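ugh ok so i messed up the first submission bc i forgot one of the chains. this is the corrected input, ALL of the components this time, i swear. 471 residues overall. if the numbers dont match what u have on ur side tell me asap before i send this to the collaborators (the ones from the other lab, u know who)
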Amino acid sequence: MAKFVCAVCGYVYEGEKLPEDFVCPICGIGAEFFKEVKNTAREETVYVEIDDDNVAISRAPSKCVACGNCKSVCRFKQGVYGYYDLQKIKCKSICIDCGQCTLNCPKKALDIKKDYKKLQEIINSRKKTIVFQTSPSVRVSLAEEFGGEAGEICTEQLVGLLRELGADYVFDTTFGADMTVMEEAHEFLDRLKTGKNLPIMTSCCPAWVKFVEIFYPDKINHLSSTKSPISIQGSLIKNYFTKIINKNPQDIVSVAITPCTAKKDEIKKFDDVDFVIPVRELAEWVKSKNIDYFKIKKSSYDNFMSTGSGAGIIFGSSGGVTEALLRTAYFLKTGKDLQNVEFKIVRNLDGFVEAEIDFAGRKLSIVSVSGTINARKMFDEMKKGKKYDIVEVMACLGGCMAGGGQPINVKLSHEQVRQKRSDALYELDKNSQVRFSYKNPNVNFVYKHFLKNFGSPLLHTKYQDKSDILG
Ligand code: SF4
Ligand code: SF4
Ligand code: SF4
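and heres the new structure output, hopefully the right one now
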C-alpha cells in the first residue's frame, strides 16, 4: 500500500492511489499538495500504524480523522508508540495487539480484526464439532452491548447465545485459569526454593509477553512458562476432551470468547485454539444474525470443564492472578487452607501497586501492574535495585475486564466501568462455593485421570527474543 503525505499538515493518506479529487480531511488542501512517500523508513504520524498482516487489529485509513487519541493511548498508557527509533524500524509497525487504541478511536478507524464470518462458514458446513470456552470477564461485560449495565452478570445468556450460534459444547475458561494457577504455583515454589529466575513474572497476558519479548528480552527467563488459561484449556480440549467424546483433534474447532484482542496473536503459536472472538466481535456476530439477546434461552456450561473456582474468576481483574496464585501456593507449601483468602492489598485498578506480605513465615515482595507503561516504571524500579518475588502484569489498565476487545461503554467513564466490572468479578468470587483452584473438582479429575503430574509440556511454553524488530 502506498502512502501520500499532506505537505501542509502532515496528514497521511494510505491507499493504492491518491484519488485526484482528494481533499485533506484536516487542512482542506487538495491532492496536488500530497507527496508519495516510500516505505523505507517510518514517518512520525498522528495515529498509530497497523500493518495489514496484524491478526488482532485493523485500521481503515479512510475513516481516520487524525485526532491522535490512539497515539496518546499507545504512547502514554501502553508505553509502546515512540519507544523505538522510527528510522530503524523499516518493515514492521511495533504493536503488542492490546487493542486499547480501538477503545479510544472515535471513528472506529481502528477496530478488532474480525474472524467470525470464517467461523460461521465452518459452522454452516456442519463438518466439525464446535467447542467454545468463555473467559471470566466476558460474563460481566457482554450485557453492555445489548443495553445492560457494566458489571451485569450474564453468564447464562452468554452460554445460550453460543448455543444459538452453533456451539456443540460450551466450557468455562475459569477452569483453564485454575489450571494455570496450579502450574504456576508449582513453578513459583520451585523458584522460591532455588532462588532462580525470581521474580516470577505472570505470563497469562499475551500483550505483556510480547512487550517483554520486544523491549526487555533479557527478562524472558523470569516469565512463567505456564500457558495462559485459554491455551491450557484449548490444549486439554484437543488432547483430552476429544478422547472422551471419541473424536480426533482435527474434527474439533476450538473457539475462545475473550475480552482480549491480543489472544488472536497468541493462538498462532499453538494448535490449541482455532479462533479468538472478543466480546465486541461476538456482539456484532449476534446482531448480524438478528438474534434477540432478550429472548435467548438461558443455558449452563457443559460438564467436564464447567466449574471454575472464585480464584479463577478474579483472573479478570488486575491483581487477581497474584491473589489466586497465593491461595494455592500457600496450600502447596503448608498443606493448609488459607484462612483469609482475600489479598485486597494487591488489587489494582490504577496501574501500579506494591505490597509486602507474610507467606508462611517468609516475606514476599509483590508488584501488581496494569497498563504496560507502568511495567516500564516497574523495570526502572528493578534497575534501581528493587527486589520483587512476584510480578503480575496485565497490559490493559485494570486487567482483562477492561481489555481491548470489551464493549465501549458510552454511558460511564473508563474508571466507573472498570470499578463496576471488577466489583462484579470479586462478588462472584465471594459467592463461589470453591475459592481455591486446588479444590476445583474438574481440575483434580484432569490431573488424576490424564496429566498425572505437574509440568506437562501440553501446559507450558517458551518465549522468543523479538527485539530485532526494533532495528
Ligand atoms: S493495539 Fe496496543 S500496541 Fe497496538 S497500536 Fe493499539 S495501543 Fe498500540
Ligand atoms: S484514534 Fe482513530 S480517528 Fe483518531 S487518529 Fe487514531 S485512527 Fe485516526
Ligand atoms: S490484560 Fe487481558 S485483555 Fe488486556 S491484553 Fe492482557 S490478556 Fe488481553
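quick check: The CA atoms of residues 446 and 452 lie 8 Å apart. that seems consistent at least. The pocket of iron/sulfur cluster (ligand 1) is lined by residues 48, 57, 73-74, 78, 80-81, 95-101 (CB under 6 Å).
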